[in-house]
Amino acid sequence: MNVTVKIKRYIPERQREAFFQNFTVEAEPTDRVLDVLVKIKENLDGSLAFRKSCAHGVCGSDAMRINGKDGLACKTLVRDVSAHEGEEIVIEPLAHFSVQKDLIVDQGEFFQKYKSISPFLINDTPVEEKERLQSPEDRDKYDDPTNCILCGACFSACPILDANTDFLGPAMIAQAARFNDDSRDLGFETRLPALDHANGVWPCNNHFACTRACPRSIKITKLINQTKRAIAKHKTDAPEKGA
């Protein structure tokens, strides 16, 4: 079948404004959108720029907007976005990122926010024997956010960031939950300044857009609400100053 692919392009060395360019490609319904992009780059326009790596939904590098929805090009089939001959597929870069070229976005600010939540195990207590043992039940408590691949799809889909670009963002809160819910971790108070902030967890209004966009089916909104409750409980349990 022939599909028309409408790609939002930005080529700063040629012109300042972004523009849409159409390509007609022959593709099978079971082809991935990533396959279509590769065909365009290899056969129609070698200047087309996009990221890709594993092509199996693990690295998260090919996140983009496809027909207005955020996701991975390697996990989106042609038949899911173009059911009929000649039906248009619109591909755009992720929202809430500055665009470097075509579908490639600048991830610098995204990862600065990621660093702000100290996304690593914090525990300076002596280790008994050779490792910190953990029960399967405790491991299950943070299993969901371990699936995050930092693709940025939830960040792009978040409507809060439309108006508040300083919002920490759903991916970062989910990553913080991964460690805060780890029974071996003692870093809750280290992460608290970034989370319990006017631009931390509190701007989230439960739109669930992040959860719907996540290609790994992580319950991100649930994790955000759990974090809000954990912060509220921490404040209630904290002893009064000077007590």
Tell me the span between the first and last alpha carbons: 73 Å
Task: Order the strands across the largest sheet as they lie in space.
Answer: 2-1-5-3-4
Percent helix range: 25-40%
Give the structural class: alpha+beta
* DSSP summary: helix tally: 10
Helix-strand string: EEHEEHEEEHHHHHHHH
CATH superfamily of the largest domain: Alpha-helical ferredoxin
Overall morphology: elongated
Q: Any idea how many domains?
A: 2
Oligomer: single chain
* Low-confidence segments: none
**The CATH topology of the largest domain:** Fumarate Reductase Iron-sulfur Protein, Chain B, domain 2
Biggest sheet architecture: 5 strands, mixed
User: What is the CATH first-level class name of the largest domain?
Assistant: Mainly Alpha
Radius of gyration, taken over Cα atoms and rounded to an integer in Å? 21 Å
Number of strands: 7
Per CATH, the architecture of the largest domain is Orthogonal Bundle
What does this structure look like?
By secondary structure, the protein is α+β, with helices and mostly antiparallel strands. The chain is built from ten helices and seven strands. Strand 6 and strand 7 form a beta hairpin. It folds into two domains: 104 residues, Beta-grasp domain (Ubiquitin-like (UB roll), Roll); 130 residues, Alpha-helical ferredoxin (Fumarate Reductase Iron-sulfur Protein, Chain B, domain 2). The model has no long low-confidence stretch (mean pLDDT 95). The termini are far apart. The longest helix is centred in the C-terminal third of the chain and has 18 residues. The strands form two sheets. It has a five-stranded mixed beta sheet with strand order 2-1-5-3-4. The protein has a two-stranded antiparallel sheet with strand order 6-7. The chain is elongated, with a radius of gyration of 21 Å.
